[in-house]
Amino acid sequence: MNASKKLKVFVPCLTVLTAAIAQAHAEEQTGTLATTEVTVKVIGFDASGGPGAQVHGGATTWSDDRDSGLLADLDIDLKLGDSLVLERKGFGPDNHRGSLKGQAAGIGFNGYYSHLRSNGHAVDYTTRPGSADNPVDPAYFTEVGHTNSGFLSRFSDDSPEKVNYHVERTAYGLAIKFKPELLGKGSSFSLAFDGYSRDGNKFATWVAGNGDFVNGAVPAINPADPNDTHIRTPQRWRGYEKPVDEDMGRISWSLSLAPADLFQLAYDGGYEKFNHKARTILIGDFAGLLDNGVTVSPGSVDMPLHFIPDSTLTTHAVRIAKNFGDTALAAGYGMSRLKQDSYLDDVSAGFDAADRFVGKISTENAYLNVSHRVSPAVSVEGHLKYYSRDNDSSMEADGLDRDIRDEWGVRIANIESMNYGLSAMFRGLPAKSTLTVGWKREDSDRDLKYNPISAPTNIGVWPSVSLYTDSTVSDEVYLKWLARPMPGMTLRVTPSYTWANKTTLVTLPEKAFNLKTQLGYAMPNGMHLNAYYHFKDKENDNNSFADTAKPTNGPVVITNEYAQKADDTFHAAGFSLNLSPSETLTASLGLDWVQNDFDTYFFGTNRRRFETPIVFDPRGVSNFKVDTWSVSFNGEYQANERAKLSAGYTWSKSDGNLRTSGLQATGTPAESQNDKIYHTVHSLILGVDYALKKNTNLRVGYAFDKYEDKTYGDLSGDVHTLMLGLALKL
Amino acid sequence: MKTMKHMALLLFAALFTLSGPGASASADAGAQLSKRDIDKCYSCHEEKEDQHAKGAHANTNCLTCHSGADEHVKVAKSKDPVKRPSRPDSMACLSCHKNDSKRMNWKFAEHHKAGVECRDCHGMHTPKVNKRFDLALWRTDKNTQLCANCHQDVLARFNMRSHHPVKEGGLSCTSCHDTHGGKQTSLVAKTAQCTQCHQAVRGPHMFEHAPAAEDCGNCHNPHGTPNRKLLTLAEPALCLQCHSVAGNRHGQTTANANGLRISSTALRNCSSCHNAPHGSGIDQHLRF
Is A383 an 8 Å CB contact of chain B? Predict the structure, then answer.
């Protein structure tokens, strides 16, 4: 029985036992209100088609059957006054959680666990290269030479064909808090442990380098060419089953003090250890899977794939807060150190411990906030925030067989940023409104390391071939208007405008207009309306490429510049209405719409960016435009004193295009299909809650989830779930 | 930049030296009602007595939170008590709940600035009743259901194809968000919020993907997207906004050609080949 299975059995037993003890304890108490509800559930399910409807927490039986089955579970809801609260929710072995919290004699405590299975990697497998909806292109193979990209003509799936890809994550934690009643006025101390374990497998892909595979019969294509690798090349693109076995444990502590009630002081610390326990797959593991006499190069046999290091993170933070009458201040400083704990030489005999790359990342954060109430109607605020990240990793890794240091790209040795701003809030304006006017600035600098080139080589990444720049300086002005024009109504309007002289990345805005509006109205008749509209228009043409040459032993020569332009427009709107037309009926409906519309240039180059002379070629413009609609209806009807009926339906559709004109060939799959994003989700829920006796309820529920995908048809699938529960109020 | 850093340190130091008497908001905590007086309240507010008995404030008397209640009690006999006791605002709540490091920066919290009071999320007498009735949230925790009352736009994103398992109950809004704090008082890096669960991608990597090292939000929307793996844009558009495509590795010839159209086999998912987008311990092309 593995840890996960043990937990599945242990936790329900423990919760039942705790419930029984707590109930017995409650009966001994006088004047303490105890409520306990235990719901015993039987769940049956039937799934068909692809994994799209079961990505998170999809049903499986205790014996791991994913298609259909019957299983039992338990819900517990126990409250013993304010001193003990125990909850457990179970939706089958793939999705259950529980929590326990309580307090006594100045001590508070809580614990929790949750378990969830994710089938996200089954989605990855279903859409793997070479699958029906994602075919490879044989044309790559027929080109003469095909040494550089011919591997794209074939994808070799080395995983067992029907691997049930999934990852199960179990999180758990315990915390104890010593309150002021115990430690004295204004003081508290808490100690917590949080952790998780992840087990399962995932689908991973990789591409072997040109020299990783050797040998093989060379029949037809160009046997006279000693560089002809056409037997080997189509075998380079591969997929495999990557085991997942990792855990994390974090101890954290927090001390809070209020010395002489002068100010509040808090110190938080943490020590976190992450362990990757699964075996790292090596290229040599694929030796027996190659065909036509191809073998793995002796120099690559020990090359690890997807290496994940163990690591340790330590954190410390100090915060203080103080009020001086109408003035409030808050300041804080925090630091973290992330250190690599396992190395390539731990997972492969091909590396030397003496030449380890040792990763170390340090961060520092600090903030200072001041607010002052000038008058009952006006208050002002200022804030300042500092952040730095230092990559203190060793720069040497001589143990690596490949001369990779000569091809390094952009490396961020240090980031240092300062955010600061001012705002003023005006109260008591018409329509019972408040208005906040503010400005803030982000100023960040980076120490970017490009590949140091030693003469006479002409290989290297130069700033001119990267869109990354070393600084961002942006300003934002904003308004926040909050009004309560009538009882129960709240209206928020928040426009802002951002402009930047420099942007590190094109994902940051050079210019952006942002508007958020929201209306909430709780009507006297119990109806509740919520509506919103958000708009954002963001664009950036600050960053550019340039044609670059680096003659042997000569200086870098930069010629034509090409500005990248990214234009991103976003709309989101929706409303929901909750109403109770009668005492026995509650209903709601909701509608949401989101649209993303993104344009950018596509650039091609004549060679890889660390090779020169490199020439850029604007190939076309992409357009990503997708609308997502979501509609939901819900109703609950108290049919009589015993029976309550409920029904809910949610439908969501994403529909749009991803156009890559100018760059993408018509080929496989068909362009019309490849450009399309079209999928829908249906979710229907029906329920009956029937009171058999005063303290016994029968609960029946039915859920139907369906996912349809017109781009990746193999993902489409559905699942029916029927639940029968007996709720006992003890 | 260095100057700003020094200024910040000086301000911190100044703050530590300021040691005037602390002032805090206070309700009528000093005015303690006797048990008999509380009974007076309950004689009219019978339903509150039931609620109190179930709530966390079961042993708290009414005047602790409701300023003006003493006067209200005096005139209550008139059957038309004009003066209602006030509902407690956040500062009144914090007069008791101040010794919690999680709430000490409420003054600068996003919720506070948006005009949200404690009572908007916390039931003073009993746990808060959700305004939003949505059976699709049947597996979520109570915190998430509460957040959904106001954040409908965010909730809609969890209906998208790729989303964090919040609707499924695997995570809660509060797993990531500090409801009592905000960006101004956060002491973690932009990536630290995500890597408190996703340690496997945090490295340290020999070959970092610089945008991933800066901010996960450069490529991912944590709530939900119509694209795979919470990506803000579908591949290849996401990647090609920053990267050019080398024709001699993604085209169909070995020559240093540029301008040839590229098959969607190469373009559809860049990550099918560059399968270590967060960073790699060994490959500069982030293939594995």
Answer: yes
